[in-house]
Write a structure and sequence with these properties.
The protein has about 70 residues and is mainly α. The chain has 2 helices and no strands. α1 packs antiparallel against α2. It is elongated and about 45 Å long.
């Protein structure tokens, strides 16, 4: 039990959802800061933009997942 009285398995099951939401927000903030925009379904296909979009998503998601997992161990 944590300080809120919630057992940890439900919190562990919520970790992917929390990681996706945080990743989505951080990716939007990073892209807004650098002026990058790519709408996969409404713009013409660009392998470079898709690689940047997907690579940024993976890097941020992995970082967020690692931080949430590390936080859960303490």
């Amino acid at each position: 039990m944590n300080s809120l009285g919630i057992s940890s398995p439900p919190l562990r099951m919520a970790r992917p959802v929390v990681a996706v939401l945080i990743t989505w927000l951080l990716k939007r903030l990073v892209f807004a800061a650098v002026g990058f925009h790519y709408a996969v379904f409404s713009e013409p296909f660009s392998a470079t933009k898709l690689a940047v979009d997907f690579g940024t998503w993976v890097a941020i998601y992995a970082s967020v997942w690692w931080l949430l997992a590390r936080r859960g161990r303490t």
